[in-house]
Amino acid sequence: MFTVEGILLIFTRSKDIGKLKDIICDLCGSSEFEIFISRDEWSWLPNKYKTNLVQCLQCNLIYQNPQLEPNELAHFYGPEYEPYVRPIEEEIWLIKKFRLANVRKKVNLVKSFVQNKGYILDVGCSTGVFLTQMKSIGWVCYGIEPNYYAAEIAKRTLGINIFQGYLSEFKGMERCFDAITFWDVVEHTFSPSNELRLAHNLLKTNGILILNIPNWNAFDRGLLGKYWQGYDPPRHLYVFSENNIKQYLSKTGFKLLNSFSLISSYYSFVMGLARKLEIEYPKLGRIVKFLLYIPGTRLVFEPWLKIYHHQKRSSVITYVAQK
Fold first, then answer.
1. In the chain, where are the structural domains located?
2. CATH topology for the 82-263+317-322 domain
3. Phi-psi region of 232 (alpha: psi -120 to 50; beta: other; left: phi over 0)
């Protein structure tokens, strides 16, 4: 067993460690944990960006401890970061088709829980693909994106309200929104508790909250181990079980309505598999990665992935809650 007070002593023995801060469990406040994946396991990261993934001994939440400071993590959100690479309009037709299919699933999900068009806020909106579709069906759209590069793309291509910054800095619209979405975002935040409280304050009564996060029960977590994309060190600061999410929602004033697999596992699975092969079998890995990223290759995998999709074991899982 380790304590927050003792862990920095371990790390300060190395001179090439980035700026770190020790934290307590964001969910239950406990300072007791055990190491789940040691920093030494992240062999593909520079030493200064390695940190432990630990598990709280009280609530079982998995999180990075110590955490890298925001300015250190910023190095991993540059223009080359995959979600920022290009707007959907610039993709080749086949990739554009697959991406639009996922976006339409998200749009239809919102419509199924909010009957009338209203105000929607997308937290971590990236280059704004989802909001573009919501705007096209008559919703009043707002987006928040901390990354300057992605926010500028969204502003340039959308012509809607994009706030470049953090949710904690977004003021003046309390109780205005009918729906707030976090598509693959909550695991990147320094305090999910704070993010959900802020979202609660911005929602109207009975407003809908949607979270899309890595699925702890995913088929590929066991298959890929430390290379699983759901861990994605050092960007993912938290990994949530379904019970963790239920506790978070209850703690911040939400009622869970449903959970299900919404989005295809293909790209998440491929990213983890490619990383594993590139590190363990470099020559083979480069060839396989090239083949996996050829447009149309996913058609071979989709029937297999759909089996896990229906079992709620996709790489990511979606939660819908209500204020």
1. 2-76, 82-263+317-322
2. Rossmann fold (3.40.50)
3. left
